[in-house]
Design brief:
Blueprint lengths: L4 H7 L13 H9 L13 H11 L6 E3 L6 E3 L17 E7 L4 H12 L3 E3 L2 E3 L3 E5 L4 H14 L3 E5 L3 H11 L5 E5 L4 H11 L3 E4 L3 H13 L5 E4 L5 H16 L11 E2 L8 H13 L4 E4 L4 H14 L12 E5 L8 E5 L2 H14 L3 E6 L6 H6 L5 H11 L9 E4 L7 H7 L4 E4 L7 H9 L1
Parallel strand pairs: 3-6, 3-12, 6-7, 7-8, 8-9, 9-10, 11-12, 14-15, 16-17
Antiparallel strand pairs: 1-2, 4-5, 13-15
Length: 447
């Protein structure tokens, strides 16, 4: 935020009403400055002060939405250079390239193949967001392909042409999908800018170098455009990397609003094969592209990129968790085994997957350990015998099973004594230390 807590305090109504959730306006101002509160929490701030505070609190890299529907995604909004400072906000959009002269049947087949590339990971659906449609010189074919992609697929669109007439024709068929227009250049900036402004669509800016990029950005923002995406024009790996870092640093550290926008990069134009494109894209997802465009989607290259993106854009200070409670795996009954573990997402999905793979219907108790794994939670005192014992009592599992046997993780074997004291009517069984051994363990119990 550009203003200090005291500067924000001067713009607040100073009623100390407490309706924002804290007792004084000064405390609220300090929370705003620290990013721990939202301005909308104050019902009495004036419109003039709201406008000033909104401008001051805007992220140095403008956030925007590209696409519509299930694969609409946000890009920009970043506030830090490094993930350990604060989580990165909006994951890099991943797209693949098609040309406007592709046969409609082949395009339909390609879109269906790409749409199938979706992966489940720790309860999340990982998939790409974009198709970049490149004009090869036929405006009618470009517009028809844009309409087909927008109407018949869930993918967002990047319309790639420097021909303003072709862009207008395509926009008429797919504006409802909120495509990204690529690109405004030194030669067509005014016409492309007017089209984007008229239709309310995001516009990419393509320059020959950083100086030209700043000049074009200033020209377009001067026309009233706000949603811009930047392409410095570099296609050599070292220069692309330098430009990405320079743009991010200038926006965050120097407050340069000319480059305070997300970027787009084209590994598809920087390599001769998909393997090298994937390598380049992996670098750009980390440093700091808002969108990357590949020449194709293949599972063996796309999945690693999606997984890298998930890891980079997961808040390192807030582990991924599942909800505390009783989980039924495989339609368990009153005689089915009962297991317990922590609510760290990765732990849950590994354990539940192994239980499901055993084909032994089971009850899985998930204890809220604030997202810690078994060993970490045990060391922190959040998976101790008395804590787990109390959870078993209050969970209601005793009403669902006739037996009184519960399986604890092998790594937490030391808590069995405390659990026996807390649960005198239960038999505490020590499960395997490695989740991969759960199927054998459960099958042996069932025989």
């Amino acid at each position: 935020m550009g203003l200090t807590g005291i500067q924000i305090f001067k713009l607040l109504p100073k009623t100390n009403c407490g309706e924002c959730g804290v007792p004084t306006c000064l405390a609220f101002a300090m929370n705003l400055a620290a990013g721990k509160a939202e301005l909308d929490s104050c019902p009495y701030v004036s419109d003039e002060a709201r406008a000033q505070l909104a401008e001051a609190s805007a992220p140095p890299i403008r956030p925007m939405t590209i696409g519509a529907g299930t694969r609409a995604f946000k890009t920009g909004g970043e506030t830090v250079m490094f993930r350990h400072e604060k989580t990165f906000c909006n994951p890099t959009g991943i797209g693949a390239l098609v040309s406007s002269d592709m046969d409609p049947a082949a395009l339909d087949k390609k879109l269906k193949e790409w749409n199938a590339l979706q992966y489940e990971r720790v309860g999340l659906n990982l998939r790409p967001e974009l198709v970049a449609l490149k004009d090869v010189g036929d405006a009618d074919a470009f517009a028809a392909a844009a309409k087909k992609i927008a109407s018949e697929s869930e993918f967002g669109l990047v319309l790639m042409t420097e021909n303003v007439d072709a862009m207008k024709a395509a926009v008429e068929t797919c504006a409802f999908k909120r495509p990204l227009l690529y690109a405004a250049t030194a030669a067509n900036a005014e016409d492309m800018g007017n089209l984007a402004k008229e239709k309310g669509l995001p516009l990419a800016v393509k320059a020959g170098n950083m100086d030209e990029l700043v000049e074009l950005s200033d020209k377009l923002t001067g026309m009233g455009l706000k949603d811009l995406v930047l392409d410095s024009g570099a296609r050599e790996l070292k220069q692309v990397f330098q430009d990405q870092v320079a743009i991010r640093r200038a926006a965050l550290k120097a407050g340069n609003k000319s480059v305070g926008f997300p970027t787009i990069a084209f590994p598809c134009e920087m390599a001769g094969n998909l393997d090298m494109e994937t390598l380049i894209a992996s670098l750009l997802i980390a440093k700091y592209a808002g969108i990357v465009i590949l020449s194709d989607f293949k599972g063996e290259s796309l999945f690693p990129l999606l997984l890298e993106r998930l890891n980079i854009y997961t808040d390192p200070q807030r582990p991924m968790t599942v909800t505390e409670g009783i989980y039924e795996i495989g339609a368990p009954d009153e005689n089915s085994p009962v297991l317990v573990t922590t609510n760290f997402s990765l732990t849950y999905f590994i354990v539940s997957g192994e239980i499901e793979g055993s084909r032994v219907p089971s009850w899985l108790l998930i204890l809220d350990t604030e997202g810690l794994s078994v060993m970490t939670a045990w060391a922190a005192g959040k998976f101790s015998g008395d804590v787990v014992g109390m959870f078993v009592k209050k969970s209601g599992i005793a009403d669902k099973v006739k037996h009184r046997k519960i399986i604890i993780p092998g790594y937490a074997a030391s808590i069995s004594g405390e659990m026996e004291e807390e649960l005198p009517d239960w038999e505490i069984l020590i499960g395997p230390r490695d989740a991969s051994l759960i199927p054998k363990y459960l099958k042996d119990m069932a025989t």
